[in-house]
Amino acid sequence: MSDSDPAPSLYAAREPVFPRRVSGVFRSLKWYILAITLGIYYITPWIRWDRGPSLPDQAVLLDLANRRFYFFWIEIWPHEFYFVAGLLIMAGLGLFLFTSALGRVWCGYACPQTVWTDLFILVERWIEGDRNARLRLHRQKKMDFRKARLRLTKWTAWMLIGLATGGAWVFYFADAPTLMVDLVTGQAHPIAYTTMLVLTATTFFFGGIAREQICIYACPWPRIQAAMMDEDTLVVGYRDWRGEPRGKLNKNKGKAEIAAEPQGDCIDCMACVNVCPVGIDIRDGQQLECITCALCIDACDDVMAKIGKPRGLIDYMALSDEAHERAGQPPKNIWKHILRPRTIMYTAMWGFVGLALVFALFIRSDIDLTVAPVRNPTFVTLSDGSVRNTYDVRLRNKHGEPRPFKLSLKGDPAMRVQLEGTPYASVEVPADTAYLQRVYIVTPKGAAASEAESTPVRIWVEDLTNGERAYKDTTFNGKGN
Q1: Residues paired with 469 in a beta bridge
Q2: What pLDDT sits at residue 10?
């Protein structure tokens, strides 16, 4: 190349991937998972759950205004966020477990990007036809009426799916029927419309336009999944020792020709490439782009059945099986790949966190309190010489009806409790409320707690309806003489 020649471009324009339709065991499994996951996502906000007259009747609701998370019979308060943290830990451990056992099986079957992309491709196929028809339409330079009509129809359908996606999301944060009416009548909060607009646009772009680019470039998981995998992880692979050398099928060859030119089972039909949603050739070996969706297995098995060859040229396999199979030995049992120390450890950790959450859920109390001492000033000396400390006590009533709560003390017997606004030691706390009550603890002149610098004290609260009790420890500040 001479100095006057322009430098070659290192950028190659993206060629969209148009997967061919395929049928088989794994494709059917993906359809089932798609229907179940999308059904759960779109239908769940409309499920009703009777919690009583003063509580919302939506089964799953993230009530940000009142700082509550409702999940059927479970109600999570802000101070119980450890339940949400525990569920996130379980989700992470579950992802590690499945990746260790079956590679990027989450990416191939249940990841939202995969599910919505499958739905968008299905709609595209209905409107524009299968792979060859879509390729011809894409490569057609002229924008005639037919191409414009198909494009507009497809984009409209994609936009409606995106709108339904954004609409379903906002229904998780407010009463779904009420919010639906407000959205239609234009009375909903601007945040609801903004959220729907953003999710509609991102769903349209991620599922319809970017597709495999999100999996290849935007998602971090392909770059860290190797830490979860080893030589016994089952991944989609190509048995090159069986398939090579490739060659077109020629049934007219004689035995002498076949012996002179041995040929593997792969007939280089490109079926595995044409059905791949990320556009790779699995015969080139393991690649970062592969999402382990196994559609290439269905396509190859279909071809093998047609040419009278055994299935499994492309299959789920482990690296440790390669040497055995090359030597003509059978691979290890699938359960020996799945049940190994790494996956057993992940399963044990996942189960431990799950059992801990269930245990914490069943032992938690329906009443609770937090105590915040008021330290400005730390104590007050009253006219009769007694010493008083002030506390802000937040009483939580998780029941669906008001309950009378009685406060008492454990510590110096000379201490007595006073509640601001009432001469009694009890107060009625509204249903499903964290009620802030100003509380005073007073000790008489000359008492040990009055003269000491600090004295430990325990504040008890009792539900007078059923006798349930809870407590918090704090300190009482005296004169410190």
Answers
A1: 462
A2: 67
